[in-house]
Amino acid sequence: MRLKAFILFHFIEMLMVLVMMASLQGRLPLCCLGEERIALLQLKDALHYPNGTSLPSWIKGHAHCCDWESIICSSSTGRVTALVLDSTRNQELGDWYLNASLFLPFQELNALYLSDNRIAGWVKNKGSYELLRLSNLEHLDLRYNRFDNSCCTCAASR
């Protein structure tokens, strides 16, 4: 009888530990994937060229890039799902020619907000056609930039 009570007690104890772990899982900070963290830092460098200072929370040694400003991650996968970079580039840095391939590592990206960043065009062979490769992208905001009318035709055709 004591053996059954002992086994039952430990079974309930293990069950409680599992329930507590499952409930905490949703509260733990997500750590984004290394390839996405590297891509975010490359994007920050591109936004800052030649010497900008925006996005101070985007720090190389900080693994939890889902906690960085302007980034939204999936709570289940930890992947970046949205980048809210409106008015991020310092206007004094002048026009920006965007390398759209910087966004390709974000496989679950469904929203990209880049309005008011003085984007004047694309880096040669790294333009808006690269954005078509983002199969989950549903929202793209490029308003209030410096494009001419021909610059975004393929992105608009999606």
Describe this structure in words.
With 158 residues, the protein is an alpha/beta fold. It has one domain (29-156): Leucine-rich repeat, LRR (right-handed beta-alpha superhelix) (Alpha-Beta Horseshoe), CATH 3.80.10.10. Helix content is 30%, strand content 13%. The chain has helices spanning 2-25, 34-48, 128-131, 153-156, and strands spanning 71-73, 80-84, 96-98, 111-113, 119-122, 139-141. Strand 1 (71-73) and strand 2 form a beta hairpin. The protein is elongated, with a radius of gyration of 22 Å. The model has no long low-confidence stretch (mean pLDDT 82).
Helix content: 25-40%
- Binned strand content: 5-15%
Q: What does the main sheet amount to?
A: 4 strands, mixed
Could you state the order of secondary-structure elements as H and E?
HHEEEEEHEH
Would you count the extended β strands for me?
Answer: 6
Count of discrete domains = 1
Structural class of the secondary structure composition? Answer: alpha/beta
Distance between the termini: 69 Å
Provide a count of the helices. 4
Say what the CATH topology is. Leucine-rich repeat, LRR (right-handed beta-alpha superhelix)
What would CATH call the architecture? Alpha-Beta Horseshoe
Provide the CATH superfamily. Ribonuclease Inhibitor
- CATH C-level label: Alpha Beta
In spatial order, strands of the major sheet run 1-2-4-6
Low-confidence stretches: none
Question: What Rg, in angstroms, do the CA atoms define?
Answer: 22 Å
